[in-house]
Amino acid sequence: MSAEIADPVTGWGRTAPTAAARLVRPRSYEETVRAVRDCGTRGGIPRGLGRAYGDAAQNAGGSLIDMTALDRVVRVDAKAGTVACEAGISLQRLMEVLLPLGWFLPVTPGTRQVTVGGAIGSDIHGGNHPASGSFSRHVLSLDLLTSDGDIRTVVPGTPLFEATAGGMGLTGVILAATFRLHRVETSLMSVDTERASDLDDLMARLTASECRHRNRYSVGWLDLLASGSSLGRAVLTRGEHAPLAALSARSPARRQPLAFRPGRLPGAPSYVPEGLLGRTTVGLLNELRYRRAPRRRTGELQPISAFFHPLDGVPHWNRLYGRGGFVRYQFVVGDGQEDALIRIVRRIVRRGCPSLLALLKRFGAGDPGWLSFPMAGWTLSLDIPTGRTGLGPFLDELDEDVAAAGGRVCLAKDSRLRPELLAAMYPRLEEFRALRAELDPRGVFVSDLSRRLSI
Fold first, then answer.
1. Which helix (H) or strand (E) holds 265?
2. pLDDT above 90 covers what percent of the chain?
3. Residue 19 — pLDDT band, cuts 50, 70, 90?
4. Is beta strand 44-47 parallel, antiparallel or unpaired with respect to 63-66?
5. The pLDDT value given to residue 18
6. How many Å apart are CA 161 and CA 174, to the nearest integer?
7. Angle at 381 between CA 221 and CA 135, to 5 degrees
8. pLDDT value at position 337?
9. Is the pLDDT reported for residue 209 higher than 80?
10. In 62-132, beta strands by DSSP E
11. 384 membership: H or E segment, kind and range
């Protein structure tokens, strides 16, 4: 088991750096048990590939338990459509194994550079939430190392499972999991793209898409610098896994319909001038993206990697925001709170936040995790460079608007929420705290996020 001092440590947003963490990398269950027992007075937190945007996988002065060496596929049941694997394996590696067998992940976020342990710990969601829910809904069992050194098999329907799914690593270290898969015939997506003239138009189209159940995945990209009659103009993308029959007999993909070869572009440079993605640049890029989108196009075939994870093709794309990084702000408000969503979008537009990546999606019924983010309604995520004057107070005001509407912010993306709003956003927070106090009375598992929010 290797160990080193990691200084500094940040999330993918490169904000809120912390220092003097001891990074340990166990290579077996036994070494992981030893790493937990040796965490020290500042405790420890499991860490995967570092794609949490905020401080959920940071622990200043304490231990970070890097799980990426536990990355084996234990068993694939191609008949039943299940996989058992260690928690440190990435979603990309799973795709490389599963797609040639005709299986795909039940849920994937906007990056495949996430471990299975991270997917469960943050209960990731994707563009198919109304149809499929979040990741933990498909988990059949998981092995959890708790603070007393015991390894427990945890199954859905139990309090420990519901606390662990979305529990941000605070109930223990996920060592392995077994979960269901989704059958596919090709590694391509059949994609429909269309423009929406404004926010009302986009919301109507997303609602109609959900009611028709024709496309499993739907997401709207918003231009949050457009105002007036164009406020909330958007490009709506909907997709479904392409059947083999969609490939023509002359198509090269017909020979290897399940091949998975994600493309890769040159990485972002290590130094990017501050303010590169400011209002002027983002305004021009947003205008270009909207104008280049077709008014309506159906049935375009795209590789899975291009449809789900376009940014993964640019290594270290987070550097484009400069040394100060960016805030990924994501919130959800429930059905019936559409007026609140529109008011919040108007405030963001008036503020002139230069968000190159602003996505609106529908959520279906919430999942059982006590701290899981999704709830039935509307979720908006946006990236904002940290150099914006007055950004902190502005986001505090948005937090209050979200809480007043009965919504919540996403903990896996957060680095700055005030603790007094957490209970209003997550009504099962006290149950989580009580179970955690019973399960981990010495406070072995702790993170910068849990300290900041008093979880």
1. none
2. 87
3. confident
4. parallel
5. 87
6. 11
7. 100
8. 98
9. no
10. 63-66, 73-77, 82-86, 103-104
11. strand 377-385
Alpha carbon distance 86, 72 (integer Å) = 5
Coil, strand, or helix at residue 331? strand
- 255 C-beta neighbours (distance < 10 Å), count: 8
Query: pLDDT tier at 123 (50, 70, 90 boundaries)?
Result: very high
Lowest mean pLDDT among 120-124, 249-253, 407-411: 249-253
According to the model, what pLDDT value does residue 270 have?
78
User: Rounded to an integer, what distance in angstroms lies between the CA atom of residue 396 and that of residue 186?
Assistant: 45
Residue 214 has pLDDT above 80, yes or no: no
Q: Is 387 helix (H, G, I), strand (E, B) or coil?
A: coil
Single pTM value for the model: 0.96
Q: Using alpha carbons, list the distances in angstroms from residue 185 to 93, 244, 331, 389.
A: 19, 6, 34, 50
Buried b (16+ CB within 10 A) or exposed e, 375-399: bebbbbbbbbbbbbeebeebbeebb
By C-alpha distance, which of 105, 117, 112 is closest to 154? 117
Residue position matching structure tokens 């399940």: 258
- Tell how strand 408-409 and strand 326-334 pair up: antiparallel
Query: Which of 202, 188, 176 has the alpha carbon at shortest distance from 75?
Result: 176
Collapsed DSSP state (helix, strand, coil) of residue 86: strand
> Cα–Cα distance between 408 and 421 in angstroms, integer?
9
